[in-house]
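Submission sheet (multi-component)
Chains listed below:
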Amino acid sequence: MTIIVDTNVIIATLIRAGIVRGILTGHPGTFATPASCLEESWETRGDWNRQGVPEDVIREALDLLARRVVIVVPDSEFQGRLAEAAGLIPDPDDAPVVALALAIDNEGIWTFNTRDFAPPRLLARVRVLTTGDVKRLLEGS
Amino acid sequence: MLFRVEEALLEALDRALAARGFKTRNEWFRAQVRLVLEEETDRKRLSQLLDRLAMEDVTEEDVLHMVKGWRARKSRR
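Outcome: structure written.
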């Protein structure tokens, strides 16, 4: 089973000691993300690192997540799907996640942003999952 | 620990190990143990790092706003 995760799920894993972190770290190899989402998680650190944790700690955590938990897919692997994905979702920054979902076998995209991931043309192609959906999927597997 | 394995299976294992560059079964076994130990060490380290990064009272909606805010500023640059 492969579930695609977007940037906000990765950031929540980093900063929230709760269900999202438990699901992600408890199922190594189940989740995949575009390399650009991992990079975005790093780039946004000024917004979410409100505790002022040293940057080397953040870098190491992201590296370990990428090495041991989440499958990080280089954007070049789904380059051919990017234009199609951009036509399905309003925010171009979300296109890599959608393109990855179009490119590989998966159960859906896990995101907190269900409002932007709602166009019918997108939902006709890709399943969008809430945290509850992901929990149920994993419990049923 | 002792394992009883069929000879044909053992021969197949030896061929697979040779193809992967291992000279002996013992060498392969030690490499596997090393991998498991490294994985466990990384898992513990990640858990320690995540504990340092954890914040109280952050919701999924808060995380979403952080990302959206960063993207909005990026697109204005």
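Remark: Strands of chain A lie at 3-5, 31-34, 70-73, 109-110, 128-129.
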